[in-house]
Amino acid sequence: MNTVTGLIKFLLKRNSEIAKMKHLETQEIVNGIYAVKTKNANFYVVNYDDDCIAIDAGGGNENIAKAEMDKLNIEPEKITAVLLTHTDFDHISALRLFKNATIYISKQEEQVLDGSVPRLVFGGKNKLNHSYSTIEDNEELYFGKIKVKSVLTPGHTVGSMSFLIDDKYLFVGDNLSLQNGQVGLFNSLFNLSDDTQKESIRNLAKIASTEYIFTAHYGFTDSPREAFKNFTCVCG
Q1: 163-216: pLDDT as tens digits
Q2: Which phi and psi (to 5°) does residue 64 adopt?
Q3: Between the CA of residue 28 and those of 44, 46, 80, what are the distances in Å?
């Protein structure tokens, strides 16, 4: 299959895959954790009084995100950090809103930006067009009272990363799906490697302190132990 044929097949199937997704309406979910609905994706804001960060930056454009954030009475200028789970367009579209924020991506995700690892099988690379800082697996960052631990979870992209906030809120981007209360692979059409993602999900399942899982396209769960049961290794 040549590149053009592969791209056409991808575009034809894309809409049917997006139709399987279930996005949250803009709302506060729990304890200063907010979902923001944008075009075909959620991003999240963690807002503890004067400390405010975002996980991803949504799809569409910054006007959509601004209108939704207005519903929450959260000013984009208050965001001091944006933690990107990866650099696909539906996770970065509102970055220009966050004028006072430092943008973070995993070190490994730079390979998607420079094209050294193609985004999908037919090639191509992502464009960020913003300055950023890189973080490694298992780094801990603090933004005022907000504690963040990075967890490298490749599979969707080579440098996909999840973020554990305050040792209990796990933000996974497109590193898994949630359907009928169960964790599964994200849509294979958009994954670089399903096998790699399976291993990443197994690693996420080992984080015993997780109380919530938040996704970009499949909502959230407050029952992570039950959700991860198909990815938990029972040994001995």
Answers
A1: 999 999 999 999 999 999 999 999 999 999 999 999 999 999 999 999 999 999
A2: -65, -50
A3: 10, 10, 19
**113 phi and psi, to 5 degrees?**
-80, -35
The phi and psi torsions of 141 (rounded to 5 degrees) equal -125, 150
Residue whose C-alpha is closest to residue 76's, from 104, 58, 173, 128? 58
**Burial of 230 from C-beta contacts in 10 A (0-12 / 13-18 / 19+):** exposed
* pLDDT, tens digit (0-9, with 9 covering 90-100), for 19-52: 899 999 999 999 999 999 999 999 999 999 889 9
Q: Specify the pTM.
A: 0.94
Q: Kindly report the CA angle at 178 between 61 and 176, in degrees rounded to 5? A: 70
How many residues would you count in the chain?
Answer: 236
d(CA 51, CA 47): 6
Residues 171 and 210 sit within 8 Å (Cβ to Cβ): no
Task: Return d(Cα 171, Cα 228) in angstroms, integer.
Answer: 14
